[in-house]
Amino acid sequence: MKIRIINPNTTRSMTDKIGHIAQSIASPGTKIVATQPDSGPRSIESHFDETVSAVGVLDEIIKGEHDCTDAYIIACFGDPALLAARELTTAPVLGIAEAAFHVASFISTKFSIVTTLGRTRIIAEELLKRYGFYDQCAKIRAAEIPVLTLEHEPDAALRLIIEECRRAKEEDQIGAIVLGCGGMADLTEHISQEIQLPVIEGVSAAIKLAESLIGLRVRTSKFGDLAFPNPKEFQGVFAHYSAGASMQT
Amino acid sequence: MKIRIINPNTTRSMTDKIGHIAQSIASPGTKIVATQPDSGPRSIESHFDETVSAVGVLDEIIKGEHDCTDAYIIACFGDPALLAARELTTAPVLGIAEAAFHVASFISTKFSIVTTLGRTRIIAEELLKRYGFYDQCAKIRAAEIPVLTLEHEPDAALRLIIEECRRAKEEDQIGAIVLGCGGMADLTEHISQEIQLPVIEGVSAAIKLAESLIGLRVRTSKFGDLAFPNPKEFQGVFAHYSAGASMQT
Amino acid sequence: MKIRIINPNTTRSMTDKIGHIAQSIASPGTKIVATQPDSGPRSIESHFDETVSAVGVLDEIIKGEHDCTDAYIIACFGDPALLAARELTTAPVLGIAEAAFHVASFISTKFSIVTTLGRTRIIAEELLKRYGFYDQCAKIRAAEIPVLTLEHEPDAALRLIIEECRRAKEEDQIGAIVLGCGGMADLTEHISQEIQLPVIEGVSAAIKLAESLIGLRVRTSKFGDLAFPNPKEFQGVFAHYSAGASMQT
Amino acid sequence: MKIRIINPNTTRSMTDKIGHIAQSIASPGTKIVATQPDSGPRSIESHFDETVSAVGVLDEIIKGEHDCTDAYIIACFGDPALLAARELTTAPVLGIAEAAFHVASFISTKFSIVTTLGRTRIIAEELLKRYGFYDQCAKIRAAEIPVLTLEHEPDAALRLIIEECRRAKEEDQIGAIVLGCGGMADLTEHISQEIQLPVIEGVSAAIKLAESLIGLRVRTSKFGDLAFPNPKEFQGVFAHYSAGASMQT
Amino acid sequence: MKIRIINPNTTRSMTDKIGHIAQSIASPGTKIVATQPDSGPRSIESHFDETVSAVGVLDEIIKGEHDCTDAYIIACFGDPALLAARELTTAPVLGIAEAAFHVASFISTKFSIVTTLGRTRIIAEELLKRYGFYDQCAKIRAAEIPVLTLEHEPDAALRLIIEECRRAKEEDQIGAIVLGCGGMADLTEHISQEIQLPVIEGVSAAIKLAESLIGLRVRTSKFGDLAFPNPKEFQGVFAHYSAGASMQT
Amino acid sequence: MKIRIINPNTTRSMTDKIGHIAQSIASPGTKIVATQPDSGPRSIESHFDETVSAVGVLDEIIKGEHDCTDAYIIACFGDPALLAARELTTAPVLGIAEAAFHVASFISTKFSIVTTLGRTRIIAEELLKRYGFYDQCAKIRAAEIPVLTLEHEPDAALRLIIEECRRAKEEDQIGAIVLGCGGMADLTEHISQEIQLPVIEGVSAAIKLAESLIGLRVRTSKFGDLAFPNPKEFQGVFAHYSAGASMQT
After folding, report:
1. CA–CA separation, E120 vs E128, rounded Å?
2. Do the chains contact at C109 and A121, CB–CB below 8 Å?
């Protein structure tokens, strides 16, 4: 089976890291295609970044539809374009925030999130509400590190994240921590050992859940609001979307 | 004062209609700039359409920032890119769904929504929850007409909308109806007279609320998650966003 | 147009202050009638005060109905008698808590309230729930000053309010502050400059929103629970309400 | 022990009926004082009626405070002035809607309400939310009979109520019905036998719950928002409330 | 009337204490049967303990059905087996957590819970949500004392509980405290005097509420999900439940 | 890896069926141990049945702990004893209702449940709320067939279930259906083809999710309320639980 994992930002080193983590957790028979949009922001740290990144995510879904993809993963903690992506395919599509929340809820009754910048807390809060995990999240915490610091100063970033995770463990009465950024995917084991608490990271979680859905042969429902979009004309730089029907082949 | 009303789709006749309604309701001193993206879908009827349209909305905000704009309105009932747009400016930004819900809540304790296609119901439901009006909405109804039918077969569309509004009045125990599409803006008075119930339409509502906010001199908060996005590099067709700092001038 | 702004307590200096603020924010063509009940408490700081004040508010609505009023504002942060008032008129009626919440939600994703006495926090909480803004309010704070201290010791009151607002800014991760008392209406600008955060005050907010509703020509719905009360006999000091039909003229 | 049951409207026959039901269900040692305001509406069928009736309820509480009252009951299904009444006394105060909801939740997992006029549904809905029983109520139904029809045409009223209760039983998947008007108190047994489902009526429920609270020696908390109101000056017809301190004796 | 109060754990001294408190608060005509399961844990401090204890509770209900019982009380703060117990009888069944929440809501607008071990907080949280009191509870606190410490080191336990109650009073802005363990039933008055705040304890609350329900002659509804279980075969140590029909005699 | 799937009732044919489905969906390297309690009801159709079955489930967990089990599944749609089971092991434990809800939420925005008897609807409702999927479930429907009819009259049962599923598809505006009974596990494909809508069944869903969690090496958190129960004495038929410490080996 083939899983396409899409890093919605355009930082190659992050895409590579995500792909590496994904492949290392995937089952032997699973082929990981780690990809990133041709166009979009280097990192996603605001509603603006997220909104712009969404189009690139959809392009990667469309490419995947021509590449016999069995499942898709959107590897940014805001799950950009998730519902739109589901419209474009019958393959399952998962976001990494979504995946992490689901897994955390299986092994604990309360978890906290530790994310990068405080200004993205509202995005996580919105997702918790939409997916139904709002009451199961004790607190959304931010280590206040820009996303790319995870790439350029990994040691400093790690130290700050561990500090925030420690506060979460001491103050939040939780059973697990969810790491709130795709770029933290390689830190999970280290942090978990350091603070002695289960730490859930969305990239791995999404890969294994995607394999589950493939194994179950469940497909994104084409009844109701996730049906393929009605074909229509698009203008300008998006004119290539006009051939909507081709999305369905 | 100058209000930029952005039709997120690329159908000129709809932009003109929206601009016309907007100007007719605006105060004498208000200049309406009705605009639409250079790129994007002809109509918005799915998560996919909405996600793609969002980038065009942001471009129009950025243009507006170089045009002394006092407030912005996003004139599609899904309020695409609303929070991202608010990040890009200190001027107030309103969505027409948001505006319609607020106004409906001032004059009734329960309202129903009548929208175009059933598949977009979930978008309205999500917005009701996000803004806090979920309990005040009795039912989200769809007349099952494609958006562009409002342009091409207005009489047939009107008849179907009135039928659905009548069912809403009879069955939903409501005090008002919210029309769930920017393209219905010119039908409000006709429908209201026909069914004898207050009918709220978001374009007018948003114009008057925007004038209120301008009059109050309240500005989109730059503290917390609506602060200007951190400047960063963008790739590909979005490379022009890299000069993030210029957004703030 | 004529807006009747009702101070539900019977302290003339507060009515004058509210009237002054209202007139200063109103559009040139708007005539403000600032009024207060003949009967009722000097200040409203409890459920008891609020319940007693409600009758006076309704009397002022009835007077307004004989004075060609285009919209009403109830200028106490508990929004006393709001739904009852809406039954008595087709003109729009707004509460200042309601108005402030709506405006705050347009420019921020989270706000805190700073009110007078802690014992009234529960009233604000109830309103947040009823109007749908409960999740958008980070915290309800009290400066623990009696309402009339705002009249008699304005400098001391201001200092305490600014201190509480500063704590809100530092601790609550918010984008705006809502002032929780009609008597604070004149402090908005001062506080906002002092703490460098948008500060919303309900009197101004309500005036501009009321002008919006008048401009939209939307009227309080007479379908369902906001219909005119069924005429009936009243006893004792309320016997004059028996001529219910006259309310509708 | 002495329980003061206050009919918030001024229809003597209804007060008598309520008093009769109350006495018949009360324990041997319980003295029932059934009373009604000197001033107020003949029946309560709107927000306006309810708001006006609230002052009379408070007057009856104050009278009760000079009459060694052990507990109070507010016998109108909108529970008018409940929190304000609790401020005025250390004795327990119960509303009949509140009492009926509590009892229904002890013997069923879902109940429906059958009330008088449809326009008062919103009042019941608000109470369900405030008290926490919103999810336990399957449906709020109205027999569409004016309150006083219960007094003047009891047989016709009974027939309509039974019809609505029957529909509730057949359609709502419920375990019990709550009668939504104090004036229905004498119909409980008849309806219950007719439709073969537990029927809860608030007057009886409130009497027995009040006896419980008296027996427990729990008193309305004077900490926080139910503390006695701060004494202050009242104007006009409410001037007699100025001697606030005397409320506490 | 006869009330069977079931201590779900198998510690005799606790059963005796609960029986003693129950009898002391009961009305003269009420006979208390205090009982405990033959099988089960010495104390209940986990989901596991609670699940195992539930069967013993049901056995005690069945015994009660052969002993002319008028009402049942389940005297553990997790209310184990409450809905199952209600299926087995037409007599009212109350849990002590449930009873305490109801009573606390009658005399305050916000309360905090002080329970034994932190790990049981999630059980109380679940109950608050199920019964509808989640928003009325300010905080669930734990004194971090094992349940049996209440039996073996009552003075030390009392001191820790009072400390936690004091913190609740100072920090939680509440009107009352609910004690979160049946084993604390004898401490209520002492704690209340010490911290000067109403303290609610579930055993007493449940006794008086049960007397109310008996007085009201309301019975557990046999319509819908609380109907008697369908008779069926049980295997193994539960084979005696096979004669399901006999439960109904 | 070894997954122990526990049928909480004692009907061998159902255990066999569940085991067969489980094995057929499991990955090649997964060994399925399908088991049922020695003691308990033949079917689970009430709160009583569920409560009694819970002990047997826990016994099966304890047996599994001596059998190198990698994950557990509780194969009854009420997810009996789920949290208690999680306390007893570090291996992941899943319920089939839980698993089905999670999977349904990945491929649709709204789903309906079709269960056996109407009286168990409340159990499903409670689970939807606890897990966070309440808003994503359009309707809980019952085909009104006793559980064992699925074993003894499979054709008649299937027909009724398909009829109810068809109504769900036509009336509920959903993207998927969740089958609400472990005994329906073998019907999924047939029903899905018949009604042309994705049909989710919990046994398969749970197996694949369990494999995911094993692959992720996440373990049930032993911090907070899912920690191993404190060892203590148990009486009577549960005396063997006294050696609590041994559970942890």
Report:
1. 13
2. no
pLDDT at A25 over 50: yes
Of all residues in chain A, what percent carry a pLDDT higher than 70? 98
Question: With contact defined as beta carbons under 8 Å apart, do D5 and D19 qualify?
Answer: yes
CA distance D194 to chain C (A): 31
User: How far is Cα D217 from Cα E118, in angstroms, rounded to an integer?
Assistant: 30
List CB contacts (< 8 A) between B87 and chain A.
46-48
Angle at the Cα of E4 from the Cα atoms of E93 and E76, rounded to 5 degrees: 65
F51 burial (CB, 10 Å; 0-12 / 13-18 / 19+) is: buried
Helices of type H across B5-120: 12-25, 47-65, 82-87, 96-107
Cα–Cα distance measured from residue A36 to residue A25, given in angstroms and rounded to the nearest whole number: 20
Give D173's contacts in chain F (Cβ within 8 Å). 118, 121
Minimum CA–CA partner of E52 in chain F: F55
Residue from the list F103, F200, F218 with its beta carbon closest to the beta carbon of A198: F218
**CB contact set of A153 (below 8 Å; sequence gap of 6+):** none
Q: What is the dihedral of CA B149, B151, B153, B158, to 10 degrees?
A: 80
Asked if residues F123 and F99 have their Cβ atoms less than 8 Å apart, the reply is: no
d(CA F23, CA F31): 7
Q: Report residues of chain F scoring pLDDT below 70.
A: 244-249
Chains that touch E (3 or more CB pairs under 8 A): A, C, D, F
Helix (H) or strand (E) holding D34: strand D31-35
Q: Closest approach of chain C CAs to the CA of D214, in angstroms?
A: 23
Cβ under 8 Å to C: D residues 110-149: 118-123, 126, 129-130, 146
Asked if pLDDT for residue D143 goes beyond 70, the answer is yes
**E strand map for E1-70:** 2-6, 31-35, 40-41
Contact B175 C132 (CB under 8 A): no
Size of interface A-B (CB pairs under 8 A): 158
Neighbouring residues of E28: CB distance < 8 A, sequence distance ≥ 6? none
Torsion of CA E18, E22, E24, E29, to 10 degrees: -150
B223 touches chain A (CB under 8 A): no
- Contact status, residue D116 vs residue D142, Cβ threshold 8 Å: yes
With cut-offs at 50, 70 and 90, classify the pLDDT of residue C244: low
| B222 DSSP assignment | -
pLDDT for C113-172, tens place per residue?
A: 999 999 999 999 999 999 999 999 999 999 999 888 988 898 999 999 999 999 999 999
State the ipTM, two decimals.
Answer: 0.96
pLDDT in tens, chain B (249 residues): 999 999 999 999 999 999 999 999 999 999 999 999 999 999 999 999 999 999 999 999 999 999 999 999 999 999 999 999 999 999 999 999 999 999 999 999 999 999 999 999 999 999 999 999 999 999 999 999 988 898 889 899 999 999 999 999 999 999 999 999 988 989 999 999 999 999 999 999 999 999 999 999 999 999 988 999 999 999 999 999 997 644 544
Structure tokens at D128: 């369900």
- Residue E213's pLDDT is 98
d(C-alpha D89, C-alpha D226), whole Å: 9
Q: In the numeric block, which tokens belong to residue D166?
A: 């029957």
Q: Which chain B residue's Cα is nearest to A121? A: B225
Helices of type H across chain A: 12-25, 47-65, 82-87, 96-107, 121-131, 149-152, 154-171, 188-195, 202-216
Whether the Cβ atoms of residue F217 and residue F194 lie closer than 8 Å to each other: no
Chain centroid, CA D108 distance in Å: 21
Residue D3 phi, psi dihedral angles, 5° rounding: -115, 130
Q: Do B and E make contact, counting contact as 3+ CB pairs within 8 angstroms?
A: no
Pairing of strands A137-142, D71-74: unpaired
